[in-house]
Amino acid sequence: MLLTECIESCLNTTYPVFTGDALVLDVLTFMQEGGLECVPLLHEEKIKALVTILQLLQAGHTKNKHKLSLKDLNLQAAESIGRHEHLFDVFSRIRVFPGNLIPVSDKDGRYAGMVEKVRLLAKIADVYHLSEEGMTLELDIPAFELKLSEVIAILEKNDVTVLSFGMYRATSEAESMVITFRVQTHDLFRLVKNMEKYGYLIRYASPFFKERDDELREKALEFIHFMDM
After folding, report:
1. Burial call 2-17: b when 16+ CB within 10 Å, e when fewer
2. SS3 of 163, please?
3. Which terminus of the chain, N or C, has fewer Cβ atoms within 10 Å?
4. Domain that includes residue 207, residue range
5. pLDDT in tens, 77-107
6. What whole-number distance in Å separates Cα of residue 128 and Cα of residue 91?
7. What pLDDT was estimated at residue 212?
């Protein structure tokens, strides 16, 4: 699936919308009955604001509450993500949306629907194989020595399938890069030991065994020590 299709596949085009003429009390009743946290307010088919149930409850205490409409509220302008945009390009922007729902617009700016933030995060988790099928291996490598192709070649020599990877600096002053791999391997314990023999500093590795397998782990350590003698 293309990443641009990830947004499309999560898009809810039937989510209820309102215009500025809708009465606050009517919208409030609708949201309470439907269990909705917020609804989009549209103006000329474009997203204008996200109206929360808290804002409507507060507005419902005013004197003219029966005549008050959504356009009378002092609402903050809402942003949206593009239906046509790459999922990775919009990822840094989804944090500006306080709730779980994010408005989506077409290329011409017209409102297209809503997506749930948790569904977009789940898509990203799928892309990077963050499910239980993979294991994590994190290396700390001096930046001047970093040759990613060499690291991947060593992993593959150890019968490892690299599912995804990313890199970052542990601190802004750090001279080394931290590379995090999601991998599939039949023997992560052996892989870690081999990587250490190559001189790589292992910053983190997924747990080798469960607590009930502590005895087996100790035997494996003894065997490796014996082989190194």
Report:
1. eeeebbbebbeeebeb
2. strand
3. C
4. 135-228
5. 999 999 989 888 988 888 888 889 999 999 9
6. 14
7. 43
- Mean of the per-residue pLDDT values for the chain? 87
Verdict on whether the full-model pTM lies above 0.85:
no
For 96, which DSSP code? G
At 164, the amino acid letter reads: S
Measure Cα distances from 24 to 49, 60, 62, 111 in Å: 14, 7, 11, 21
Residue 130 lies in a domain: no
pLDDT value at residue 3: 56
Number of alpha carbons in the 13 Å side-chain half-sphere of residue 149: 0
Residue 220: pLDDT band by 50, 70, 90 thresholds? low
Residues 65, 157 share a domain: no
H/E element, 190: helix 188-197
- Which tokens belong to 101? 């729902």
The DSSP H or E segment spanning 53 is helix 53-59
CATH code of 209's domain: 3.30.70.260
Give the Cα separation of 15 and 21 in Å (integer): 18
Q: 82 and 190 share a domain?
A: no
Nearest Cα neighbor of 111 from 16, 48, 45 is 45
